[in-house]
Design brief:
alpha/beta; seven-stranded antiparallel β-sheet; nine-stranded mixed β-sheet; Rossmann fold; 16 strands; 2 domains; Hypothetical Protein Yjia, Chain: A,domain 2; disordered C terminus
């Protein structure tokens, strides 16, 4: 009899630029009893001050925190750290954590981390990306994002954005920062860091898509494109849609996320998660999380064409306009993206 594959462990990524307030937020969240079943990986530089929370040594490089949560340092390779945690968990050397959070350094680009989690066959089987939470300083967010590409990418990759230092920010600061975040990542949910709870890290992150379809917003080279569509895709069309998007536009694609309506099973949305050319194994939710059964996709990229998602999706859903290519034109035409022409 084949052994049953273990349920993947939800994994959250906490990011934010230097000084944004990740330390304050994470320290507060780790006191929450709701995270007693969690493990946390922090960077080796010790940017996060958790010493006052440590209560006991559990295993090499792993400590138990006040609420029962486990914490370890990222020593070298991320893959080795995550594999070591799984081995220690499976062998009973540490308590069986049921959730994992990774805190990135302030200068980290989240793209390689998400690619690692998706590309590695064993890690992709054992972990499931729950959400990316970015912390942004409300007093200086626009200046930081303008000066540092890493900060812009951290925001662009996020499912949720926690605004910090709101007590120090003026009304003008908050308005400027909120407006920029809305342009840079219109799909993200923005929350007050002071009110963030465990669900900010581990709650299911359904994409927010405005009712304008398609929508494109740009900030420098980074552009957010969102699409909402009633038309379903067959599963075969979905596979071709993703394959074409990945093969033709991966270098420009920071992240693609969303829910897709599949013709063979319209009551259950298919979750899409992609980073560059790497896409997670698609999975179905039991039901639409908010009663809205439209396909909702958000692409965050650098130099993406504004109508990219709408054009590709319409071609594979069979709802093309007279002046747009259909699926056959995209797949069979020698001037298609695979041949270096159409939509490239």
């Amino acid at each position: 009899m084949t052994a049953q594959r273990p349920e993947p462990i939800p994994l959250a990524v906490l990011t934010g630029f230097l000084g944004a307030g990740k330390t304050t937020l994470l320290n507060r969240l780790l006191r929450d009893p709701a995270l007693a079943d969690a493990a946390v990986v922090i960077n080796e530089a010790g940017e996060i001050a958790v010493d006052h929370l440590l209560v006991e040594h559990v295993a090499d490089g792993v400590v138990a925190l006040a609420g029962g949560c486990l914490c370890c340092s990222l020593r070298g390779d991320l893959i080795n750290t995550l594999e070591d945690l799984l081995r220690a968990r499976d062998n009973g050397r540490i308590p069986p954590f049921r959730r994992l959070a990774i805190e990135t350094s302030g200068l980290a680009d989240p793209v390689p981390i998400l690619q690692t989690l998706t590309l590695h066959p064993y890690l992709a089987m054992r972990y499931r990306l729950a959400a990316v939470l970015a912390v942004v300083d409300a007093t200086s967010g626009p200046e930081t994002i303008a000066a540092h590409p890493e900060a812009a990418r951290q925001v662009a990759m996020a499912d949720r954005i926690a605004l910090s230092k709101l007590d120090l920010a003026t009304a003008e600061d908050i308005a400027r920062t909120s407006a920029l975040l809305g342009r840079l990542n219109p799909a993200a949910t923005v929350i007050d860091a002071r009110e963030a709870e465990a669900d900010a890290l581990f709650g299911e992150a359904a994409p927010r898509v405005r009712d304008m379809a398609p929508l494109a917003e740009a900030h420098g080279a980074i552009r957010a494109i969102s699409l909402a569509s009633e038309a379903p895709l067959t599963r075969a069309s979905y596979d071709m849609f993703v394959d074409l998007l990945r093969s033709a536009h991966a270098p420009k694609l920071l992240r693609l996320k969303g829910l897709v309506k599949i013709a063979e099973d319209p009551a259950r949305p298919l979750v899409v998660q992609g980073v560059r050319h790497v896409f997670a194994e698609p999975r179905f939710l039991d039901s639409w999380p908010d009663g809205d059964d439209r396909t909702r996709l958000v692409a965050i990229g650098e130099g993406l064409a504004p109508d990219l998602l709408a054009t590709l999706y319409a071609a594979f859903a069979g709802t093309v306009a007279p002046d747009r290519p259909d699926r056959a034109a995209l797949l069979d035409n020698p001037l298609s993206p695979r041949g270096g022409g159409l939509l490239s």
